[in-house]
Every structure is written in structure tokens, then in C-alpha cells.
Design brief:
heterodimer, A: 14 helices, 1% strand, B: mainly alpha, 12 helices
Chain lengths: 304, 279
């Protein structure tokens, strides 16, 4: 009711039109319209002239060739598969590392908690590009880190398996490692937020009734943190699947990820319809997990 | 029954080692005398000297800061309007579409946002002759669009947490809606607005993907400069630049944390005193 009165006041003076209208129009003009142009372009025909596309020609306006190539050409299928696998593995690893970290943050004393939270947020605020770059320095052939790993490997395995350096740069392993590194705060923060809200009395009650710590975790803590797990999972998976910077810098050029493919199709191959079709397909693939996410979010808000 | 969660603390230590060892390694190697970025050749500060005498870096930094300042400011205004709208105007035509439009940029992969912005600017230049060339304006417009939704999320969350009865009371006492807005609503949500601005500023300062699509000749932001250098491999002067950036952000975040903490504590004390004096 109160919200209704607030907005009615504004309506009467015509203020709400401005308050709603300005951001609305902005997003329609600079977000929705550009995206609709991409959708339209995905059914255009590639043309050697400028702009490098046209509508019509031998096709009656709508040309679905780009989409049929996305579905039939092994290159695109492989790229989608690589992207989704890498993003999924990164998400699972982030969860496995991030969950205990988030849980630990809720268990330490208040003073420590603020300091540790700050330490989680700090990499979050430092440049993404530089965090990827930091790993490039660590993974390179002559780096101290690679030397350490090489020595460890050579120490453990028989002599003929010895290597001069561990191949890390330009592999899918490097992509996943750097993704886990750069996206881990995205996993920890929502997990921490949902774990912090839990009532410790429930844990104590379960303990009093004879549950072992592992059972308390499995039956009490874990089920209640599912919204946090899903939120964190989506925050890692979605940007990781469309990642461009990480695969370009540390990835394997022979098995490109989808983000890099879109960018290459657009700038190097100058095939705008193809780039648009791949982009639209990626977005459609992203819609499914996103719907799942908003479904859970709505459910979580409804139960509050 | 208080047990030390040894397992959890071990994981936490490993987690923080994982977070900070690459950054520390980068900082150490920024003082490397060797030309080879990954081989230690003694202590030297020569990369810092070469960095400060590099006009390209200074130009890129100035451009980045300008874009970040303008785009964060406009994004904060638009994002705050959208956040207030979503939290307080529960019924208006097109609300569903509006909230969809506000969430969509958050989940759109950056490559797609970048490409669609670029195609949009090229088509607009073709159709109506604007924007004449890509650069400051187009980068700023793209940054505003994708950072305003972060501001919206923060402001909306804060608005939903705040007590509406103060607004109610002000209206009962005869305030006009814009007075309620400027005297009550905005001051109450000001911490959210400030953190929204900071987030938008950082996002803009950090962005490489969308900027690389919307830039034009002669407009190189700092991330774009680093991007073009890093693509060729690890170079020692980037280590120095990275160290300076990490330290700046680190000091900034710690200071902001201290200030916010103090403000929050002060607010709590004042609130308590207000209750006591009324009791």
C-alpha cells in the first residue's frame, strides 16, 4: 500500500514518467536495439562489399545458412563443447574450493571475518586482465613456478619420463585454472551471503540430537545453501562460457572457445552474419541456466 | 562444544595462497633487472623508470580515467533511477519488460554486448551519420549501458531493505514527492549510490572486451594498451604497471573499507542515541 501511495504521488506530478522513462529509453536504445540488430544480422547474407552483409539476394530476405553451419560444421560444435566443458569444470572447481572457504568465513570471529572478507574482495576489485597476466608469468616455460612443478614431477617419476618444463601455457588446463582463479570471488561472495544467514541454533540442535559434524553439514547446512550455490554457479558459468580474454591469452589456439570464435569471425573473417548467428546461439544456450537461476531466485524470495 | 575446524582453516589458507601468490610473484618480478620477464636477474627499478617516461601509458591512463569518471557518473544517475523504480513502483505498464531489460545486460556474455554495440554504432553512422567516428563517445556510451545495471541492482537491494515508514511519515507531514526523494530517500540510500558509483567506475576502468569493440583509431585505454602488449607475451614493464595498479586498488579498497566501517558505526551510535533520547 505504501509503495502505491509513493508512486501515485509521483504519477500525479508526472515525475514517474521521467524516473522510469530515462533508464528505460536508455536500455532500449543502447542495449535492446543493438541486440535486435544482431539477431536480424544473423539471418542476413555475407557480402564482399561494405558493409559485409546484405538482406535478400538469392535468398528471400531470411538466410538461415549461418545457423545451419553452426549446427553442422564441426568447428562450431567443438567450440561450443569446449566452452561448455571448460566453464562447467571451472564452476565445479570454484564450488569445491569456494564452499569450504565461504563456510570458514562464517565460522571465524567477527574481527577476522572482516579482514578475510576484504582479502576475498581485493582480487575482485583488481584488474581482471592483470590477474590473467599474473598467471601467464607463473605458467611460462622458464618461470619459478613451472620450475618447481618440473622438479617435483622429475623427482617423482622414472628417469625416462623426465621433462624440461611442464607444458601449461596454451592448453585447456591453463584456461580452466585461470578461470577458477579469476572467478572464485564470484562463487565465494554469494555462498558467504547465503551461509551467513543460516541460524547456528539449527546446527547446535542437530549436534545435541546426536548428529556427527558431517551429517550436520549434509542434512542442515548444505540444503539451506542451495540458492547460494546456484547463484554462485551461474555467476561463474555464464561469463566463463563466453570468455574471450582468457582463451586468447592462455588458451589453445587449435581448440578455440566460443567467445574467441565470435570475435575471429567478426574481425578477421569479416563474416558478420556468421558471428551474429554464433552469438545468438550462445545466448540461447545461456537462457536455459539463466531461467533456472531466476526460477530459484524467485522461489528463495517467495519463501522469505 | 567448540572445536577448531582444522580442515576449513587449511582450505582457507590454501585458498588465500592461491589468490595472492600469482600477484606477489608479479610484484617481485617487477623489480627484476633481467629483460626476460620470468628469469631473475637481480634487483632493479628500471621498469618503473621506463614506465613513467612512457607517454603512451600516461595518455592511456588519462583516457581511461576520463571515460570511467563520465560513464560511472551517468550510469549512477540512470541506475539509481531504475533501482528506485523497481523497488518502489510496483505497478506500471511494462514493468516486466523493464525488469527483464535491467537484468539482461548482467547475464549477456561480454563478447555479444561488444559485437552488438559495434554493429549498432556502425549501422547508426550509416543511417543517420552519428557517431561520426568511434572513440571516447562510443566507449563511454557502451560503458554506461553495461555498468548502470550493476548500480540498479545495488540501489534496488538497498531500497528494499530500508524502512518505508519514514517516507510515509514525511508524506503525512505534507512533503512533496520530490522533497521526500531528495531529503529522505536519496540520503538513506546514499551508501548504495556511492558503492554503485565505485563499482561502475572500476568496471569501466577494467573493461577490455567491450572497449576493444567500441574503440576507434587513437583511443587506447589502459586495459587496451595492456591487452595489446600482453597478447605478445610477458614483458617486464607490464609487471611494473601491474604492481602500481594492484597497490593503488589495494590501498583504495582498504581505505574505503575503513571509511565505510566508521560511517556505519557512527550511524549505529547515532541511531541508538536517538532511540534513547526518545525513550
Amino acid at each position: 500500500m505504501s509503495a502505491g501511495r509513493f508512486s501515485r504521488w509521483f504519477d500525479r506530478k508526472g515525475w514517474s514518467a521521467l524516473l522510469i522513462g530515462a533508464p528505460y529509453l536508455w536500455l532500449v536504445a543502447f542495449f535492446l536495439l543493438p541486440f535486435l540488430i544482431v539477431v536480424a544480422m544473423s539471418v542476413a547474407t555475407k557480402s564482399p562489399t561494405a558493409p559485409p552483409f546484405s538482406f535478400g539476394g538469392e535468398y528471400p530476405v531470411v538466410n538461415l545458412e549461418a545457423y545451419s553451419r553452426v549446427l553442422s560444421d564441426g568447428l562450431y560444435l567443438r567450440a561450443f563443447l569446449t566452452s561448455i566443458t571448460n566453464a562447467f569444470v571451472a564452476m565445479v572447481l570454484c564450488l569445491l574450493i569456494g564452499y569450504p572457504m565461504a563456510l570458514c568465513l562464517t565460522r571465524v570471529s567477527k574481527g577476522w571475518r572482516n579482514v578475510l572478507l576484504m582479502l576475498v574482495i581485493l582480487p575482485f576489485w583488481t584488474s581482471f586482465l592483470l590477474r590473467v597476466y599474473a598467471w601467464m608469468g607463473m605458467m611460462g616455460r622458464n618461470s619459478w613456478f613451472n620450475g618447481l612443478l618440473t622438479d617435483g614431477w622429475n623427482f617423482l617419476v622414472p628417469l625416462d619420463w623426465a621433462v624440461r618444463s611442464v607444458p601449461m601455457m596454451n592448453t585447456n588446463f591453463a584456461v580452466v585454472l585461470v578461470m577458477v582463479y579469476t572467478y572464485l570471488p564470484f562463487m565465494i561472495l554469494p555462498l558467504y551471503a547465503s551461509l551467513e544467514r543460516l541460524d547456528p541454533a539449527l546446527d547446535e540442535a542437530a549436534m545435541d540430537l546426536g548428529s556427527r559434524p558431517w551429517q550436520v553439514f549434509r542434512d542442515i547446512t548444505l540444503p539451506q545453501s542451495i540458492p547460494g550455490i546456484i547463484a554462485g554457479g551461474m555467476l561463474v558459468f555464464i561469463p566463463a562460457a563466453g570468455e574471450l580474454v582468457i582463451p586468447t591469452l592462455v588458451g589453445d589456439a587449435s581448440s578455440p572457445m566460443i567467445g574467441r570464435l565470435i570475435s575471429d569471425e567478426f574481425s578477421s573473417a569479416r563474416d558478420w552474419p556468421m558471428a551474429s548467428a554464433v552469438a545468438v546461439t550462445l545466448l540461447v544456450l545461456m537462457v536455459v541456466p539463466t531461467m533456472l537461476y531466476s526460477h530459484y531466485q524467485a522461489k528463495a524470495e517467495g519463501s522469505k | 562444544m567448540k572445536r577448531r575446524p582444522v580442515f576449513l582453516i587449511t582450505i582457507l589458507c590454501f585458498g588465500f595462497a592461491f589468490f595472492y601468490i600469482p600477484i606477489l610473484s608479479m610484484i617481485v618480478y617487477s623489480f627484476n633487472a633481467s629483460r626476460l620477464a620470468t628469469v631473475w636477474g637481480g634487483f632493479s627499478t628500471k621498469w618503473y623508470v621506463s614506465l613513467f617516461s612512457n607517454a603512451q601509458v600516461i595518455d592511456a591512463l588519462v583516457l581511461s580515467l576520463k571515460i570511467a569518471f563520465v560513464s560511472a557518473s551517468i550510469a549512477t544517475i540512470l541506475g539509481t533511477m531504475a533501482g528506485i523504480t523497481l523497488a518502489r513502483f510496483t505497478k506500471f505498464r511494462g514493468r516486466m519488460a523493464f525488469s527483464g531489460l535491467v537484468t539482461a545486460p548482467l547475464i549477456m556474455p561480454e563478447v555479444i554486448t561488444g559485437i552488438s554495440s559495434l554493429i549498432f554504432f556502425i549501422m547508426m553512422a550509416d543511417w543517420i551519420g552519428w557517431p561520426g567516428q568511434r572513440g571516447f563517445t562510443t566507449i563511454t556510451l557502451a560503458h554506461i549501458t553495461f555498468s548502470m545495471v550493476f548500480v540498479t541492482t545495488i540501489v534496488q537491494a538497498r531500497m528494499l531493505q530500508t524502512d518505508r515508514t519514514i517516507e510515509e511519515a514525511a508524506m503525512d507531514l505534507g512533503s512533496r514527492p520530490w522533497q521526500v526523494m531528495f531529503d529522505i530517500t536519496l540520503p538513506v540510500i546514499s551508501p548504495a549510490i556511492v558503492s554503485g558509483w565505485l563499482l561502475a567506475f572500476t568496471i569501466s576502468l577494467d573493461d577490455v572486451v567491450i572497449t576493444s569493440f567500441t574503440t576507434g583509431p587513437g583511443s587506447t585505454t589502459l586495459p587496451l594498451l595492456i591487452w595489446s602488449k600482453v597478447k605478445l607475451g610477458v614483458t617486464p614493464d607490464i609487471n611494473a604497471l601491474a604492481t602500481l595498479m594492484v597497490l593503488t586498488v589495494g590501498i583504495g579498497v582498504v581505505l574505503a573499507g575503513i571509511i565505510l566501517n566508521r560511517a556505519e558505526r557512527k550511524r549505529l551510535v547515532e541511531e541508538r542515541m536517538a532511540y534513547q533520547s526518545n525513550a
